[in-house]
Amino acid sequence: MKHNCDDCRSQKRTALCLLEESEWASFAEVRTLHQFQARQTVFHEGMPASTVHILCGGRVKLSFKTPQGTAHTVKLLSARLHPCEILDKPALGRSVYSLTCETLTEAQIACLDKAHFSRLMQHNHQFTLLVLNTLIAETASHLEALRDGSGTARQRAAKLLITLSEAQPKERGDGA
To answer: Is the distance from CB of 59 to CB of 44 less than 8 angstroms?
Structure first.
């Protein structure tokens, strides 16, 4: 799989593509690009989360295991539809990954050490805004469920809460 960030950037496909040249150079300097084969695990739930993974090419599946041990798919992502998607957003604020990421096809993933990611967030306001806008867009997609015209407001809110709770792994106190 050949993927060129410069080609994507020239098309302004993602929020990261909108970074000024010097800001993009700062990002590109500290990230590494990794090629994965189909059906390869990128990271797994409970593993120390020291890296931010950003989907650049291919397709991946995000999932977690329920307390009963069954796998629950949270999301299927394609770089064509969701370029430069941060793969485990909850792990940005946690010490371990909350999900498992498995490639469905060959995939290219940019890896950025959390310390570098944090420095970019602290010192690069445009990068911070781009990340926040991504997180807000994902939250806004859930709000659409509240606007669905079926049922009462209480029923719509309950349905959304159930959907969100089913899609999020539970915190485990055993460190796993």
So the answer is: no
